[in-house]
Design a protein that fits this description.
This protein is α+β, with helices and mostly antiparallel strands. The protein has 2 domains: 97 residues, 2-Layer Sandwich (Alpha-Beta Plaits), CATH 3.30.70; 88 residues, 2-Layer Sandwich (Multidrug efflux transporter AcrB TolC docking domain, DN and DC subdomains). It contains 5 helices and 11 strands, in the order βαββααβββββββαβα. Strands 1, 2, 9, 10 and 11 form a 5-stranded antiparallel beta sheet that branches.
């Protein structure tokens, strides 16, 4: 059974994480790196944790038209906030408790983007101007969630190894691919989990080999430095053999 050390839950056995303070740039280059790695024979099951298929509606304001109508961006933000969120308009104080008065639009009129057609902005002159008179809305894809590692937004690419391929070969391929596609300096990547532990152990391996070789040499020098007794020197006396009488009696002392 494979053992996974740390990292995020993913479909692959190993992970490579990209981090950046620009979410849009991170999404773009995560997809480019994933596509580039998917063509490498040293990797398999290449996938990312990006969930960028959420639906989002952007309101695009025609600023010159809004300015001619006397409508400012702050006024538009306030109107949309009142239409699609809650706002505290008052507080009721009693002897022991206080209660917030919350204003919101009936949920039936805020169920979808089509509700924007019914939004009107009240100008400083007291005129009601439809939102569609100076703005339009468009559908775009947006991430359902954004992962973070430290203080940066993060996106993780997971991968596994084909049969007969080593992790050292896979890490070299990923590093070469990152350099080849020209990833900007504002995005930086690192191996995580098991792949990171492998890199750490690989970087320490030369030191371990040197330490083992030094220890082996010292042991050889210690063994080779023990002097054997000279050939003409006195030989060690052999121990005398003492026989005990039957019955366990002590031997008689010499007379």
């Amino acid at each position: 059974m494979d053992v996974r050390a740390g990292g995020r839950q993913s479909s692959g056995s190993y992970q490579y994480t990209l981090r950046s303070d620009d979410i849009d740039l991170l999404r773009l280059w995560t997809q480019r790196l994933e596509n580039a790695l998917a063509t490498q024979p040293a990797l398999t099951d290449v996938d990312s944790d990006q969930e960028a298929k959420g639906l989002q509606v952007n309101v695009v304001i025609d600023r010159p038209t809004a300015s001619r109508l006397g409508i400012t961006p702050d006024l538009i933000d306030t109107t949309l906030g009142n239409a699609f969120s809650q706002s505290i308009v008052s507080t009721i104080f009693e002897s022991r408790n206080q209660y917030r008065v919350v204003m919101e639009v009936d949920p039936r009129y805020a169920e979808g983007p089509e509700s924007l057609r019914q939004v009107h902005v009240m100008t400083a002159a007291g005129e009601r101007v439809p939102l569609t008179a100076f703005a339009r809305y468009e559908y775009v894809n947006a991430p359902l969630s954004v992962s973070h590692q430290g203080q940066f937004a993060a996106s993780t690419i997971s991968f596994s190894l084909p049969e007969g391929k080593a992790l050292s070969e896979a890490t070299a391929v990923i590093n070469d691919t990152v350099a080849r596609i020209g990833m900007p300096a504002s995005i930086f990547g690192s191996f995580e989990g098991t792949a990171r532990n492998f890199q750490s152990s690989s970087s320490n391996q030369p030191l371990l080999i040197i330490a083992a070789a030094t220890l082996l040499r010292e042991r050889q020098e210690t063994v080779g430095g023990v002097a054997a007794p000279a050939g003409g020197g006195p030989e060690a006396s052999e121990p005398e053999e003492v026989s005990l009488p039957a019955g366990g009696a002590s031997p008689a002392s010499p007379g």
